[in-house]
């Protein structure tokens, strides 16, 4: 247990540091958005590029890990929608937003730091292979579902085009594509360039954790906290449990590899669930509460999953 504490404590201490800095006006709230933009648009793409360039892609893209991760996520998406309609009486459009809140993981700002801290650099190739498909699969699925159920929806073809543009305009995708091109072309970085990417990669963890901690100041508990709590349970417990069952019990993936996908599936809801909800004007308060509740609760649930996975 002390080993788990040593892994988790610095992660959430950095998040608490960011929260406190903004809460007590030691760091400007407006600067958090810029800091997160730096992580998502510059530092993480450099990390993706460098990691894929220097990794063994034959082991990185493991369908026995990627498949259960996304199948579990889609099951959670459907479960969240059905629960939101059946037990909370939501309209289909709001239910889709609630379901998405329990599906989309914070793989970059929280996931990458925890994976690197828990399992070291050897976990990054598999982790990054999942992150590379994250928005393409889950965001597109949510957008298409939303357009199919809401009455004021756009034509499906237009929705698919918008989703494709969102995915292709994502700098994370650019980093992955560049890394794969460099890997298969045998690109070798000279020392100054290598040092640049190493330094940019090193900026991801502290900046991401400080940023997500500061961003939590934007989210306040509302009357929809019960729905958010259910969405958080789906995200933090059901998703990794499904991934565990499929990887370990069904596919018999070795634990030392399967734990990468299982732990990543246990990450809290990402800020994109709130962006998605506000974009469609459906369930924004539930999404905001889910980000807040799941992020705080993940300090306990991630520790529990680390214990289950044997670190």
Folded structure, characterized:
The protein has helices spanning 2-23, 29-53, 57-60, 63-86, 92-101, 107-119, 124-149, 156-168, 171-184, 191-202, 204-215, 225-250, 255-265, 272-280, 284-308. By secondary structure, the protein is an all-alpha fold. The protein has one domain: Na+/H+ antiporter like fold (Up-down Bundle), CATH 1.20.1530.20. The chain has 15 helices and no strands. The N and C termini lie close together (10 Å).
Task: Please give the CATH class.
Answer: Mainly Alpha
Counted beta strands: 0
CATH topology call:
Na+/H+ antiporter like fold
Residues in helices, as a percent range: over 70%
Q: What Rg do the Cα atoms give?
A: 19 Å
> Which overall shape is indicated by the principal axes computed on the Cα atoms?
globular
Mean pLDDT: 90
Largest sheet: none
Estimated share of beta-strand residues: under 5%
Number of helices: 15
- Give the low-confidence spans: none
CATH architectural type: Up-down Bundle
Spatial gap, N to C terminus: 10 Å
Helix-and-strand structural type: mainly alpha
Q: What is the count of distinct domains? A: 1
Listing every helix as H and every strand as E from the N terminus to the C terminus, the arrangement reads: HHHHHHHHHHHHHHH
Describe the structure concisely.
The chain is mostly helical and 311 residues long.
């Amino acid at each position: 247990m002390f080993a788990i504490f040593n892994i988790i404590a610095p992660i959430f201490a950095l998040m608490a540091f960011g929260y406190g800095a903004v809460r007590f006006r030691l760091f400007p709230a407006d600067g958090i958005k810029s800091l997160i933009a730096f992580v998502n648009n510059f530092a993480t793409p450099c990390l993706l590029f460098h990691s894929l360039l220097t990794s063994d892609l034959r082991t990185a893209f493991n369908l026995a890990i990627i498949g259960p991760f996304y199948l579990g996520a889609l099951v959670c998406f459907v479960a969240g929608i059905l629960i939101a309609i059946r037990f909370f009486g939501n309209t289909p459009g709001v239910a889709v937003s609630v379901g998405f809140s329990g599906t989309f993981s914070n793989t970059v700002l929280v996931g990458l730091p925890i994976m690197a801290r828990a399992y070291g650099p050897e976990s990054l190739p598999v982790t990054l292979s999942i992150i590379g498909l994250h928005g393409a699969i889950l965001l597109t699925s949510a957008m298409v579902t939303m357009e199919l159920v809401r009455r004021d929806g756009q034509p499906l073809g237009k929705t698919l085009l918008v989703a494709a543009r969102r995915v292709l305009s994502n700098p994370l995708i650019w980093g992955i594509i560049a890394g794969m091109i460099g890997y298969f072309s045998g690109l070798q970085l000279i020392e100054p360039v290598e040092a640049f990417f190493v330094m940019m990669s090193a900026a991801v963890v502290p900046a991401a954790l400080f940023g997500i901690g500061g961003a939590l100041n934007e989210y306040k508990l509302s009357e929809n906290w019960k729905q958010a709590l259910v969405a958080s349970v789906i995200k933090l417990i059901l998703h990794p449990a499904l991934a565990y069952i499929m990887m370990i019990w069904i596919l018999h993936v070795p634990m030392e590899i399967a734990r990468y996908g299982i732990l990543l599936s246990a990450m809290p809801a990402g800020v994109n669930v709130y962006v998605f909800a506000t974009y469609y004007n459906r369930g924004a308060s539930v999404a905001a509460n889910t980000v807040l509740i799941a992020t705080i609760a993940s300090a306990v649930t991630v520790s529990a999953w680390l214990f289950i996975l044997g670190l």
